Amino acid sequence: MASAELQGKYQKLAQEYSKLRAQNQVLKKGVVDEQANSAALKEQLKMKDQSLRKLQQEMDSLTFRNLQLAKRVELLQDELSLSEPRGKKNKKSGESSSQLSQEQKSVFDEDLQKKIEENERLHIQFFEANEQHKHVEAELRSRLAALETEAAQHQAVVDGLTRKYMETIEKLQNDKAKLEVKSQTLEKEAKECRLRTEECQLQLKNLHEDLSGRLEESLSVINEKVPFNDTKYSQYNALNVPLHNRRHQLKMRDIAGQALAFVQDLVTALLNFHTYTEQRIQIFPVDSAIDTISPLNQKFSQYLHENASYVRPLEEGMLHLFESITEDTVTVLETTVKLKTFSEHLTSYICFLRKILPYQLKSLEEECESSLCTSALRARNLELSQDMKKMTAVFEKLQTYVALLALPSTEPDGLLRTNYSSVLTNVGAALHGFHDVMKDISKHYSQKATIEHELPTTTQKLITTNDCILSSVVALTNGAGKIASFYSNNVDYFIASLSYGPKAASGFISPLSAECMLQYKKKAAAYMKSLRKPLLESVPYEEALSNRRVLLSSTESREGLAQQVQQSLEKISKLEQEKEHWMLEAQLAKIKLEKENQRIADKLKSTSSGQLVGLSQDNAALSNAAGQDEAAAKAVPEPVQSTSLVPDVESREDLIKNHYMARIVELTSQLQLADSKSVHFYAECRALSKRLALAEKSKEALTEEMKLASQNITRLQDELTTTKRSYEDQLSMMSDHLCSMNETLSKQREEIDTLKMSSKGNSKKNKSR
Question: How far apart are CA 750 and CA 757, in angstroms?
Fold first, then answer.
């Protein structure tokens, strides 16, 4: 699978690479075309510049020609001005000469006019050519700038794409190398798997032969020793004790405990709802303390007063069902006999709801007919009447399914085993329907209470009673929602636990067989308990002594190792200090050696160049050997201190050899130290990972505990609020009752006083008589 995924990934990357390569070719072509266009535009610009230069030269020549013609015109005008007075004097004498001068003048004028027109035309052409050249030059410059920016952008895109291609190529090459390595490892694993399959086939063949032999022996023993097979017949198989599943029993008891808590909350809410409804009938639409209520409401109040005798048994039946589920029993539908009792109590409560439903509807109609009822209040009362009908219908539906679930423990033919799952699913649907109906009742009753509070004739007692009823309805809604969600979360487990029963059979046949099986289970448990031997009270003396020796040796070895570690740490610190000391000494020696070499080099500058070169090379080698590490300085101190001009070759080789040997020793010691540190760090990381895993597990457990605690807190807060409200309601009722009693007492006292006064007056009259 991993190789296929990597091949797919490689193919995708190759396709992307081919696409990007094609795009790169297109972009390169576009860049080349733009470069060609820019070159052509540059050539055009050069041609325009040349034509402009030619025009400028022609303009210069024309201006020069114009200047010459202007000078010639001036000369001609001067000559004409000089010839005019002469013509006046010799007018008579030379008519022929005047005619010639006029002809010449007309010729000059025509020539001058032509030159002026030509000059003007040339000026216009020059101006137009100059303007056109400027316009073309501006256009070409702007286009050249745009093309340069586009070329820069294209070049940036090309650079980015090439960089991306290179990265993609490197990535593909790395992936290819990884895939090759992985393919090699997979080939090795395939070879190993082939060898393992061959071994497994041999083992399977041997096991098949062994099991076939054992099967033959078992069949022969069964045929000879077993009188009959009790699992063959379902009647006998139902009496066999199934395997004890303690986890299943604990889970079922936990679920039953949660269901008991939810049913208790629901029972409390139902009691409050019926009780506060009775109080409301006594107050609205007619207050019983002021006037008598209608016979219908009296009967309805009487029935509601009996609600505890129908609601309390629901809690008791659920409690008995919870107590019947223990760790030692087998909990399936055939063994839960107490479910029948709960179903009977639920049936009695349904009868109670059916009995009070007509009175409740008539009471709501009576409220609608009263003069205090508005149109909005009448609409709310009609909605509540529909909701009460739906509530009774939902309870009837729920009671039908609970009665069906109680049939396997009393009448096994009443419900087929194949219908268990459908009945359990329908119970969840009925609970969700009950929750929806209670939400509608809560919404409509809150609207009704709001409308009644706005009436001017509403008393404080009615407002308090409405608030109490609304709180009980809210508690009923919350309880119904909790039960519905709880059942939806566990319905899959209920359906899966239907298969829990005797082996090799579909389930228990009858309640009698299930009861007999439980008796056999108790007998088997008692027999196993009797066979269990008591454990030894203490460890034998010899084993305790050996354990003590092992403990002492382990503690001594631990203390010794701790001391060795402490000593080694002290040695390491001392060696580090010595290392720093000798490093400083080596640096000082290197500085001194460099100074000595410089001094010797200055002295030998005048002697010979060859000796100076050899001396500098030898001294440089010595300085490098002394500066690399202090160990070499300690190992061979004589060559460093030598001041001979030409050192011996053997001593130099020994110096280099000793230096590299000391360096190898130091590197090996550093490598060993690094290995020991890495082992220590690995052990610490492993311990920290274990501690982290334990901490995460404890965190998860604590979060679960916190969730459970928060759930318990919310449940207790709900209970506290309901009890607080009930107590407050009871206190308000008691205070009202005490006020009424005080009023009656005050009235009785006044009557007694009047009677006393009347008796005194009668006695006085009798005395006077």
Answer: 10
